[in-house]
């Protein structure tokens, strides 16, 4: 794991949250997109070298909708930049971590992603991210 790639924050209303974070950081989101496979709309903010992803559910079955229903708005996950997601998944499985999706899938911001189950990471949902080569 090379660095924290971003911190994901679950929000009820992406438009209102975008306004809040724009005021907080003094600049607008640099990217917005929908990830249909996950049932979310996302926006990304940069603050210095740090990236924040806001996530709003697009349907009631979305993991974000379920998270907000159970815990309310707030930090949803921490994502780490990975050089080789396939190698890292095998290494972490060998170390005893539970992988929620062993086959990497396309996520937001041009990334392949895999999630680690929070029950094996002290209650924190961990996302592994690898940039998709063009």
Automatic annotation (TrEMBL):
<comment type="similarity">
    <text>Belongs to the methylmalonyl-CoA epimerase family.</text>
</comment>
<dbReference type="InterPro" id="IPR051785">
    <property type="entry name" value="MMCE/EMCE_epimerase"/>
</dbReference>
<protein>
    <submittedName>
        <fullName>Methylmalonyl-CoA epimerase</fullName>
    </submittedName>
</protein>
<dbReference type="InterPro" id="IPR017515">
    <property type="entry name" value="MeMalonyl-CoA_epimerase"/>
</dbReference>
<dbReference type="Pfam" id="PF13669">
    <property type="entry name" value="Glyoxalase_4"/>
</dbReference>
<dbReference type="InterPro" id="IPR029068">
    <property type="entry name" value="Glyas_Bleomycin-R_OHBP_Dase"/>
</dbReference>
<dbReference type="InterPro" id="IPR037523">
    <property type="entry name" value="VOC_core"/>
</dbReference>
<keyword id="KW-0479">Metal-binding</keyword>
<feature type="domain" description="VOC">
    <location>
        <begin position="3"/>
        <end position="131"/>
    </location>
</feature>
């Amino acid at each position: 794991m090379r660095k924290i790639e971003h911190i994901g924050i679950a929000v009820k209303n992406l438009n209102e949250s975008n306004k809040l974070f724009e005021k907080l950081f003094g600049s607008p989101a640099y990217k917005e997109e929908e990830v249909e496979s996950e049932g979310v709309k996302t926006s990304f903010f940069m603050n210095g070298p740090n990236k924040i992803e806001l996530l709003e559910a697009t349907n009631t079955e979305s993991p974000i909708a379920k998270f907000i229903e159970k815990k309310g708005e707030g930090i949803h996950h921490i994502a780490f930049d990975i050089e080789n997601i396939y190698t890292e998944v095998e290494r972490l499985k060998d170390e005893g971590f539970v992988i929620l999706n062993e086959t990497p899938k396309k996520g937001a911001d041009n990334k392949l992603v895999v999630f680690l189950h929070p029950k094996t990471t002290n209650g924190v949902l961990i996302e592994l991210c690898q940039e998709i080569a063009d």
